Amino acid sequence: MLTAYGGGYMIAALSIKHTQFNFAFNSIYSH
């Protein structure tokens, strides 16, 4: 349970960072 919870937390953190990276990349690339 603890490992699954930690894995889910890490996946959530990675997805948030991935979204922020895409947003920054798109805003820079579009200009």
Rg (C-alpha, Å): 13 Å
The rough form would be described as rod-shaped
Note the total helix count.
1
Helix-strand category: mainly alpha
Number of DSSP strand runs: 0
Q: Give the quaternary arrangement of the chains.
A: single chain
What proportion strand?
A: under 5%
Main sheet, how many strands, which sense, barrel?
none
Low-confidence stretches: none
- Percentage of residues assigned to helices: over 70%
Q: End-to-end distance, in Å?
A: 45 Å
| Secondary-structure element order, N to C | H
Kindly report the average pLDDT value: 82
Report on the architecture of this protein:
The protein is mainly alpha-helical and 31 residues long. Helix content is 94%, strand content 0%. It has one helix and no strands. It has one helix spanning 2-30. The chain starts with a helix and ends with a helix. 0% of the residues are buried. The model has no long low-confidence stretch (mean pLDDT 82).
